[in-house]
Amino acid sequence: QVRLMESGGGLVQTGGSLRLSCTASGVIFSLSIMDWYRQAPGKQRELVATISNGGTTTNYADSVKGRFTISRDNAKNTVYLQMSSLKPEDTAVYYCHSRPSSYWGQGTQVTVSA
Questions:
Q1: Which of 110, 32, 103 is nearest to 67 (CA)?
Q2: CA 58/CA 60 separation, integer angstroms
Q3: Cα–Cα distance, 28 to 82 (Å, whole number)
Q4: pLDDT band at 12 (very low <50, low <70, confident <90, very high)
Q5: Closest Cα partner for 50 from 103, 3, 97?
Q6: Residue 37 to residues 46, 68, 75, 97, 114: CA-CA distances in angstroms?
Q7: Which of 39, 104, 107, 112 could be bridged to 86 by S-S, CB 3.0 to 4.6 A?
Q8: What angle do CA 103, 68, 48 make, to 5 degrees?
Q9: For position 98, what pLDDT does the model report?
Q10: How far apart are the C-alpha atoms of 3 and 106, rounded to whole Å?
């Protein structure tokens, strides 16, 4: 059974930082491309960041470039999203996602207060 479990969300003030973690089980993590998505209330889910299976290639949405960093530790089956200089518009539920077989975590809430 595949499971992706996010953690690390919470309430933070504008300008603050958070680190999200997503630990996978039931998949060959080192072969999986990993994504972070987010969904704000009333909006579509959007892709925030992607990291290749070996961790050598990363991509970011324009809205988070220079503020967010995606990384992974294949020995721990874990992908991270370090978020800095947070803004109220970053408020959303953040989900991790694996590819090529598509699996989703349950999400973790990030709230940035003005």
A1: 110
A2: 7
A3: 23
A4: very high
A5: 97
A6: 5, 12, 23, 7, 22
A7: 112
A8: 40
A9: 97
A10: 9
Whether the CB-CB separation of 18 and 110 falls below 8 Å is answered with: yes
Task: Please give the radius of gyration of the chain, using alpha carbons only, rounded to the nearest integer.
Answer: 13
Please provide the size of the chain in residues: 114
Q: Which tokens go with 49?
A: 């960041």
pLDDT digits (tens, 9 = 90+) for 37-58: 999 999 999 999 999 999 999 9
The encoded tokens of residue 62 equal 């324009």
Its sign, for the CA torsion 86, 89, 93, 97, is negative
Token digits of residue 81 = 């999203």
Pairing of strands 108-113, 92-99: antiparallel
Look at residue 97 and give its three-state secondary structure: strand
Q: Residue 61: helix, strand or coil by DSSP?
A: coil
Token pair in block for residue 113: 């207060």
